[in-house]
Design a protein that fits this description.
Mean pLDDT: 84
Number of strands: 6
Order of helices and strands: HHEEEHHEEEHHH
Number of helices: 7
Strand order of the largest sheet: 1-2-3-4-6-5
Largest sheet: 6 strands, mixed
Low-confidence stretches: 53-65, 77-81
Oligomer: single chain
Helix content: 40-55%
């Protein structure tokens, strides 16, 4: 299992991304800049909750872990809430199974967030808006678009107003179709390849300074080392488990071969005895 050095990680790597949003004095500013560029509008105070885990309602129910959970702080909490929850999910994994399951995965994320964001007895109007943002270096739908925005609509009357507060954005870092802002293109390129050379505007240069601060922090480095060690243990355990399975299969195959050889020898012995009987008649 090859370890990437912390200094070589990009913002699409879970560890670095989550380290950025949780870092004291940096996380909120970093998150606010990301959202500003993605939505082309300014954001106020954000509540940042890293790697928020939603467990299943029972032991046999599926749970999930959201990479970055952001919520606009309510300035007037006594008034019916219309704030928005943002779930940002950088994703490097691009197997066919993962890509094909993305729509239902996003449906599951929305359902989990919704189920936990409405208190008992509250009006459904108090349900917060939820926007799930998946950022990938691969094209999730094969149309070469940088931005795919998914909303519910009425099939019979597509132009009919229908806003249930749920939205999903897929941001493909290499997409060329559509008309995304230059700032978004530069951000996604920087997230895919987080180097000073790709910090091509003032905002990204500021973000790059934040990235360097986080990467050079000894506690972050120690956390990365511990996480890698745990993953390496799990990886090695998987290898040992596979080796044990292979050895059991080899032993089983050898045992089957030995039984087959023994049976063949017995058959041959019976044939020889039969030939001897025939010869004496």
């Amino acid at each position: 299992m090859q370890k990437r050095k912390l200094k070589d990680l990009n913002l699409l790597d879970d560890f670095l991304f989550n380290s950025m949003v949780t870092y004291p004095g940096i996380g909120e500013s970093f998150s606010r800049e990301l959202l500003r560029i993605i939505f082309q509008k300014d954001f106020g105070k954000l509540i940042v909750v890293p790697q928020k885990t939603y467990y299943g309602s029972d032991t046999d129910k599926h749970g999930t872990r959201l990479d970055v959970y952001l919520e606009e702080e309510e300035s007037e909490p006594d008034i019916l809430s219309t704030s928005t929850i943002y779930d940002i999910e950088p994703n490097l994994l691009d197997s066919t199974e993962i890509i094909n399951s993305l729509p239902k995965r996003m449906r599951f994320y929305h359902a989990k967030i919704d189920a936990r964001s409405l208190k008992s007895g509250e009006s459904y109007r108090a349900l917060k808006n939820v926007i799930v943002i998946m950022i990938t270096p691969y094209d999730p739908f094969g149309l070469n678009r940088m931005v795919y925005t998914i909303r519910a609509k009425c099939e019979e009357v597509p132009d009919m107003a229908y806003d249930d507060g749920a939205r999903t954005l897929f941001l493909y870092t290499k997409g060329t179709e559509g008309n995304p802002s230059t700032e978004l293109k530069q951000l996604l390129q920087y997230m895919q390849d987080t180097t000073l050379e790709n910090a091509t505007n003032n905002t990204l240069q500021t973000i790059h300074q934040m990235v360097e601060i986080v990467k050079q922090d000894e506690e972050v480095s120690l956390s990365y080392m511990k996480i890698f060690e745990r993953e390496e243990i799990i990886f090695n355990q998987g290898i040992e488990h596979e080796k044990a399975n292979t050895e059991r299969e080899r032993q089983r195959a050898n045992a089957e071969k030995d039984r087959a050889d023994a049976a063949e020898q017995e058959i041959q012995k019976l044939k020889e005895e039969l030939e001897k009987l025939k010869a004496t008649k």
